[in-house]
């Protein structure tokens, strides 16, 4: 049986990697894929290996996580090729017949390994993307990110502020403009469907429902997800109405990280409805929200003016956010834990 080898950082995996591995598997009976990571890299190797396992469930494709802190370029070590041969041989445990790469290092490495090198799409004609391009501007290269891992690269933007500042309408406008998803304030949906008046016991299911909505919407978002409020808002209202705290809620309200927040000021008229009762407290509630933002260490943009001016400000800000690099915080074990309800 012929044995092929692919190795790479997959930092992150993209559709070019999928093309390489798919084509390589066609040319050998069994394929070993080495997922190589360094501790200093911003996407943990453990997570990349997990992604690769989900992307390639084929039992004939053997995925192995390599954690050796090897040199990355020949000029870094006079024994560069020997170092990598030792790593490859210690992880594959059998003779490599074919080396498959999309890189120029394939020829010298194949000579060291004593195998045949097959080059696949060196010029990136089939899949014109690199992992570094995705790290630098993921939204610009959204089509090349596998659907499975896109939620980690979604830029979540929270619209926040006190009652009746136009959060919902602006969230909808932004989602339509940027052709993506938005999630409504879960508390409003929950309370409108509830027969009895709100009480303290409602806050945990509201918080859990809102976070679940965020997690689900991120799976199909087009690079950006707009949130009409978040758990920090739920925390503020729990304190305001009941002077109470729920540890599960507090941990996530303060610990969850977002790409940015748009803080809507109170310089538009307050509008009464059945779920609003703090019209006389607009100033004090704005202060409460600003304190909460500071407590959660959230950066934000002020949104002020009439409705049209707010829309223009927000669109300009979001366009800037679209061009930002990937957010390393999105890949931390702690943030994954908080979003996975662990």
Automatic annotation (TrEMBL):
Pfam families: AAA_28 (PF13521), CTP_transf_like (PF01467). NAD(+) binds at residues 14, 69-84, 101-103. The keyword Nucleotide-binding applies. Residues 156-310 form the NadR/Ttd14 AAA domain. Residues 6-136 form the Cytidyltransferase-like domain. Keywords: Nucleotide-binding. It comes from Leptospira brenneri. GO terms for molecular function: nicotinamide-nucleotide adenylyltransferase activity; nucleotide binding; ribosylnicotinamide kinase activity. This is ATPase.
